[in-house]
Each structure stands twice: as structure tokens, then as C-alpha cells.
Write a sequence for this structure.
């Protein structure tokens, strides 16, 4: 699908997903992306990031992007300032942790567990662990069991290279727990389970209140189904060219892929064009 033409003169804040959106497939910020964020600041538009990553896994973005806004990790489960001081935390109710882990295990998904900025795994060398550690720039803690770690859990991740299994299990978890939990794919191989208030829609609401910016003056940009949750609560929604068709249909605008400077192009075309 070709990028739509369009622009906005009213945007006061851009909220961007990170992986698949702000950075390339090699997890790099391009000079053009950095320049686009600088141009937003010069135009009086604030910039914030949100991700399924832990906040500590976004620390490397703070300096090059000169971030000053709250950073929303775990899809909003943990919001911190630029010193990584916790501003808001949304835990998974402890009584649900065991049943969720059981459901993911039954579906054949490997599981990761996050408490605060700590990342726990049961199987060192499991799929995607090494890549994730390289991405977030810290290593997980290997434990034999999660039995003593049910309190203070902000995210559970189900991991599998069977994308159909991830998608099906996401639907099953939503059916089993209803409104008590949020379950959405942050990547085709990652199923993120969080507190129902820890969604990217909640991130939009949090930033709207914290920064005093109306939702209709917020632009959101992302590439995955969990980003659709923030699209519906913002005035301008932009899907990446590497997003699937369902995500693209949920957005008001579509840009090019993250390998084709899609983030920067979206900022230039849809947010900055026409601004003095």
C-alpha cells in the first residue's frame, strides 16, 4: 500500500513505538530519524516513545533523541522519567500470573517474566533471548521456576517462531481472562500479557494528562496490533509500511517501512509539512 498524502497543523505531541517503527530491523536509529525528532522539537512538538521493551531497554535512545518526556515501557506497564525513576506501575494481579504461565506453556510458547526492570527466563539459550539481550543491552536472570515471582509482575511474554500459535494463544488468553488482562502481539513472535490498564491506549491517556495535551493533538505511529490500541485514542494515527494490512486499515495514514525511513518520512510529511 502506498503512503497516503496528508498533513496536520495541530499536533503537539508525537508518540512513537520503537521496534519496527522508530528503529531499523538492526535496531538502529538513522540520522534522518534523529533529525526528524530534532525538527519536531524546533517546531514545538513534543516527542515520546513507548514499547513492549522494559524502560531500561530504551535508555540508549534518551541521549540521541534528547528525550525529556516520560518513557513508557512494557506497553505502559511501567512509566519512568529519563532517570528511570518510576512514575507509574501497572502490575498483573498476582493470582493471574500462574494461570497465564500455564496457558502459555500449554500452547508451547516459551515464557519470560518481568518485574520492575528485571527480566527473568527459565531456559538460557531459548529462542530470541540472545537477540533481545542485545537489543535492550542487558541480560536476563535465569531461574529454575517462577513460583516465587508472582508479585509485582508487569509483563509476561510468550515467545514462539510459530506465528499462528502466538496469534491463536493471544485470542485464547483474551477469551480466558476477558477484561482482567491485556494480551497483544508486540512482534509476530512475542505475545505480551499485561495489566488491562497497561496498554498503549493507556499511554496516550497518561501522556495527555501528564503533559496537558488533548488526545486529538497527539499523533501516534506504530507497526503492530498492540499499536492499534493507541491509534484509536489519538488525533492522527500512522501505520508503518511494514505493518500488516489490519494495522494499516486502523490508521489514518500509512508511511513507508522502517527500512525505508518510514518514521522520518511520516514526521516530515504528516506532522511537519506546512508548519512555520
Amino acid at each position: 500500500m502506498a503512503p497516503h498524502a496528508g498533513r496536520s497543523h495541530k499536533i503537539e505531541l508525537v508518540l512513537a513505538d520503537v521496534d519496527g517503527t522508530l528503529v531499523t530491523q538492526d535496531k538502529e536509529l538513522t540520522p534522518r530519524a534523529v533529525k526528524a525528532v530534532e525538527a519536531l522539537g524546533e517546531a514545538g512538538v513534543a516527542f515520546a516513545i513507548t514499547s513492549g521493551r522494559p524502560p531500561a531497554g530504551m535508555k540508549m535512545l534518551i541521549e540521541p533523541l534528547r528525550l525529556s518526556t516520560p518513557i513508557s515501557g512494557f506497553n505502559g506497564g511501567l512509566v519512568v522519567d529519563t532517570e528511570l525513576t518510576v512514575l507509574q506501575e501497572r502490575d498483573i494481579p498476582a493470582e493471574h500470573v500462574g494461570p497465564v504461565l500455564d496457558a502459555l506453556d500449554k500452547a508451547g510458547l516459551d515464557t519470560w517474566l518481568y518485574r520492575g526492570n528485571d527480566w527473568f527466563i527459565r531456559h538460557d539459550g531459548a529462542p530470541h533471548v540472545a537477540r533481545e539481550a542485545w537489543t535492550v543491552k542487558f541480560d536476563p536472570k535465569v531461574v529454575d521456576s517462577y513460583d516465587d515471582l508472582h508479585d509485582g509482575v508487569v509483563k509476561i511474554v510468550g515467545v514462539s517462531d510459530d506465528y499462528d500459535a502466538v496469534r491463536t494463544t493471544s485470542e485464547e488468553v483474551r477469551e480466558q481472562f476477558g477484561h482482567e488482562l491485556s494480551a497483544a502481539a508486540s512482534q509476530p513472535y512475542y505475545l505480551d500479557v499485561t495489566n488491562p490498564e497497561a496498554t498503549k491506549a493507556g499511554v496516550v491517556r497518561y501522556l495527555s494528562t501528564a503533559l496537558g495535551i488533548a488526545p486529538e493533538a497527539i499523533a501516534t505511529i506504530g507497526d503492530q496490533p498492540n499499536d492499534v490500541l493507541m491509534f484509536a485514542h489519538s488525533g492522527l494515527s500512522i501505520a508503518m509500511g511494514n505493518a500488516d494490512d489490519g494495522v494499516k486499515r486502523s490508521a489514518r495514514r500509512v508511511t513507508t517501512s522502517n527500512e525505508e525511513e518510514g518514521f522520518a518520512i511520516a514526521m516530515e510529511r504528516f506532522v511537519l509539512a506546512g508548519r512555520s
About this structure: The first strand starts at residue 13 and ends at 17. Confidence is low (pLDDT under 50) at residues 1-9. The longest helix spans residues 163-177. Residues 206 and 212 are 10 Å apart (CA to CA).
